[in-house]
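Summary for the funding panel

The consortium committed to producing paired sequence-structure records for every protein in the target list. Below we show the first two records in order, beginning with the earlier of the two.
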Amino acid sequence: MVAKPTGNSPAQRQLSTLSHTTRPYWQLPPGVERGMWEYAQSPDIATQYDDYFALNSLFEFDQQVAARYFQPPGLVVDLGCGTGRALLPLVRRGHRGLAVDLSRHMLGIVREKSRLEGLPVDCVLLNLVEMDALRDGFADYCMCMFSTLGMVRGRANRAKVLRSVRRILKPGGTFIVHAHNFWHNLLDADGPWWVLKSLLMGLGRRDFEVGDKHFPYRGIPNMFLHVFRRGELRRELRRAGFTSTRFIPLDTARRHSLPQPWLLGRIRANGWVVICQ
């Protein structure tokens, strides 16, 4: 693999030290909330991941988009790869893969799947905010799906992730990212109140950004997610150096592109898959 980082970078040493210990909040890796850390360190979350989503077609659209825009075959970097649900289908089509995740348990599953099928996939344990170990300009394609970018806490940290993506891509490389839509919350029963509260808190608190939320997920009471406004996400991508972006709005179930996007699409879209170059 042409893009394997060194195994003893400061970020990787920190992850190795923290992986099996409970540390105070201030010692968590940059951009990683407590809930996300608990999620990444849970072996049960990883081993149950495929079964949890087995009957859900949630990922099919992601795979279709990636197969369409990642041409011809090349090296694909999957940021927040999970168990490889988006990366491995691409590798089966002739790509090579680099799986990057905060969870050593997830990476272990990707590694075993790749071994059993004889697929060219390398696995790297990294925090997405700390990807300096990855070389400049080595990747043909990169993806960050399933709202992984929104799981990074803090605008400055997310900006660092996007700058790293731009840095590791070859000139003309393609980046695909998924994000949830802030305004779609208006369609939920309690959504208008949450939207108003988020807007007001964003004005009055320095430790809060409009779109930040915590919620229970798979037994973890405090998962973090930042949901984006379209203009916000477009600006962040452009600041990172992406000059061309195409937003594909998604329907409520996130299984298809949004029908009639011209009809209140800024609210009706559950989120977007964004194609960047």
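The next record, for a separate protein in the list, is shown here:
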Amino acid sequence: MPQVQTSLFDRIGGEVAVRKLVEDFYDRVLADPELAFFFENTPMERLRDMQFEFFVVALDGPIDYTGRPIHLVHHGKNITRQHLSRFLDHLLKTIEAVHPNERDVYDIISRINTYSDQITATTAFSE
């Protein structure tokens, strides 16, 4: 009998797990003095909602992302590769704490990392 493939979203625990991931992740990021300043004037509840949608989509979940394109959201923020690396390190530690399955952890990081050029670009991509 063939095995049914489950999405990464389902494997990590679905909506409840992704919401916890986003909450724990931003607690870590906002406690980091090298990253917190990026969020000083950011409505965090809205950001957490958009980040939840983004992660659900990236993990093949059943929700659509309704936020602005990633490259436009990050354009002009002067986010360097070093900033992104710290951000992803916090994400890695958060995922490992929430869902310690090594294969899934690296699958999540790999999916999110595909957006790195859009996050650190100094010029806006065309839509």
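Regarding this second record: Residues 32 and 51 are 18 Å apart (CA to CA). The longest helix spans residues 81-98.
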